[in-house]
Amino acid sequence: MKQNKIILLILIFFNCFVSQAQNCTIKDVLEKTIIQDVKYSESKEDVNLESVLRYDQHEFIGFIGHKKKRLRINFTSIIIDDETKKLFFVKGATTVRNTNLRSFSGSFTVKNHFVFLEPIDDYAINKKGKYGFSILEYTLAEDPRLCFTGTFNGKILVCWYKDEEGNTTYCDLFDGYDGSRNYQFIGTWTSYKTNNSSICNWGQYRIPCSGDLDVGASEFMPNPKYNNVGWGDYVP
């Protein structure tokens, strides 16, 4: 019952900003990533996500719009706000369909931390410390002086491990789950010119809620039907 309430809380946060174009929910991302039958609860402990978010900030793969145009996104700078420890100032660049390179700046804001109440894999059974995940909000703004620009808004799901000394690191241990689905972004892109929003998701190794775009088994592999929107030269 408590776990259901937590999921409902996450969904309320998430649905506050997602447009009607976004059919996927954060619950879908959770279930695809790690959350199936593992119990967890919300945590009020401080979790420093600086090293987690900086784990690998280059060349995320994603798509934008219902046609699933290829989106490349790189974070060139992720700096924590030393005062709050819950705000990160970020910079980077995007490329759509292998053209239109655009820089952006914005922020990540930590909203909730959750800890697992049982081991998430066999290796973790004898490992001290805590495994968990966090939900963040992101807002990224492209240069309004350039054409085909706008703002990205959404949620981030990222998993972590916190040792006995309180050091937090990126977590990639998932026995029976798809660990490649860690560090997931789900949200929208809104055009400055038209104010219209499009679904826009990306991730580190897999793209959340990508539907028939991803036909890979153990790793992401784009469906050949999308070759004409930038995926034709994709190399894993």
Features:
single chain, 3 helices, globular, signal, eight-stranded antiparallel beta barrel, mainly beta, 11% helix, 236 residues
From the helix content, strand content and strand pairing, which structural class follows?
mainly beta
Apparent shape: globular
* Major beta sheet, strand line-up: 2-3-4-5-6-7-9-10
**Biggest sheet details:** 8 strands, antiparallel, barrel
Proportion of residues in β-strands: 35-45%
N→C terminal distance: 41 Å
Radius of gyration: 17 Å
- Poorly predicted ranges (pLDDT <50, ≥5 residues)? 5-21
What is the number of E strands?
10
Rounded mean pLDDT score: 83
Structure overview:
Residues 1-21 form the signal peptide. With 236 residues, the chain is mostly beta strands. The protein has one domain. 11% of the residues lie in helices and 39% in strands. β4 and β5 (99-116) form a beta hairpin.
SSE diagram, text form:
Blueprint: H1 2-15, H2 26-33, E1 40-43, H3 50-53, E2 60-64, E3 69-80, E4 87-96, E5 99-116, E6 130-142, E7 150-162, E8 168-170, E9 184-191, E10 197-203
Antiparallel strand pairs: 1-5, 2-3, 2-10, 3-4, 4-5, 5-6, 6-7, 7-8, 7-9, 9-10
Short description:
By secondary structure, the chain is mostly beta strands.
